[in-house]
Design goal:
- 8% of the residues are buried.
- Helix content is 0%, strand content 33%.
- The strands form 3 sheets. Strands 1-4-7 form a 3-stranded parallel β-sheet, with no helix packed on it. The chain has a 3-stranded parallel β-sheet with strand order 2-5-8, with no helix packed on it. A two-stranded parallel ribbon has the order 3-6.
- It has one domain.
- It contains no helices and 8 strands.
């Protein structure tokens, strides 16, 4: 069987407006600016500009 998931988001994560997720895994304490499409793994303590 094939399984899919939406997105896993860690603790203390801040996400800007108009950000979209597709099968992403987001670590803890991550900051993501608005208007992004996130489709990958983002390690903890990262800022995505």
């Amino acid at each position: 069987a094939s399984y899919s998931f939406g997105t896993i988001i860690g603790d203390r994560t801040t996400v800007g407006a108009f950000t979209r997720f597709k099968g992403a895994v987001i670590g803890n304490n991550v900051e993501i600016d608005g208007g992004k499409l996130i489709e990958t793994e983002i390690p903890s303590d990262t800022r995505v500009m």
